[in-house]
Amino acid sequence: MKQEVFKFPSSERSKLLEAAESWRWPYWDWAMKKPVPGQPHKVDYNVPLVILTREVQIRLPTTLGYGNVPNAFYQFTMPKGITMGDPSLEDKDKDPLKDLRIFPVDYNKGYKYPFDVCKATSRHPKSETGVNQDWIMGKQDNEAIVKELRDYRWDPKNNNEDKNGNLTASLRDAFYRLTTIKNFEDFATKRAG
User: Fold this and answer.
1) What is the pTM of this model?
2) Which residues make Cβ contacts (< 8 Å) with residue 22, sequence separation at least 6?
3) pLDDT under 70 in the chain at which residues?
4) All residues at 6 or more sequence positions from 39 whose CB lies less than 8 Å from its CB, including other chains
5) CB count, 10 Å around CB of 12?
6) Nearest to residue 129, comparing CAs of 119, 116, 147, 141?
7) For residue 174, what pLDDT is reported?
């Protein structure tokens, strides 16, 4: 984000840098009940609006002022159509902390999820469809997420999920757990719970 500031005229950079310094992911948006579309007096758990929109209007560093761009919160697509496991993402000095490649993940009984062939991020892809072009190019199933959010409860005693009731205050805890996951592969799969 800070790198983008330098594409703007120098007279505007200090305010844009200040805004970039104070920006943060609005985690509470996941933990709030939101108005249900078409039902003005009803609120329920739903995905945040920021991930529902394919394009967003932003201020551009040109004389055009504003323009629409793909929303990276909706879906991130790899630049130049490369895959997430492309060799060009490997650190030239072989530093594992700077290696940006995604590797296949062993999940169930030796089955590997080949995240390395994906060209875009997915949200709640259907596992029964297997690896297909939708999965590779990124599949967003927000309706399935809403269903999961409304039928999710964390059992702190056994440290696992309990699908026998509706979510209560534990949604905030669940989102906090997501933000503290150390391995991307755990975050990118259902292993994170």
Assistant:
1) 0.63
2) none
3) 1, 24-31, 107-111, 126-130, 151-156, 159-178, 184-193
4) none
5) 12
6) 141
7) 67
Cα–Cα distances (Å) from 42 to 31, 38, 39, 139, 152, in that order, read 16, 9, 6, 28, 19
User: Are 99 and 90 spatial neighbours (Cβ–Cβ below 8 Å)?
Assistant: yes
SS3 state of residue 123: strand
At 136, list the tokens: 């590779």
User: Reduced to 3 states, what is the DSSP secondary structure of residue 162?
Assistant: strand
pLDDT at 14: 92
Question: Residues near 105 by Cβ (< 8 Å), separated by ≥ 6?
Answer: 112, 113, 115, 185, 188, 189
Helix (H) or strand (E) holding 141: none
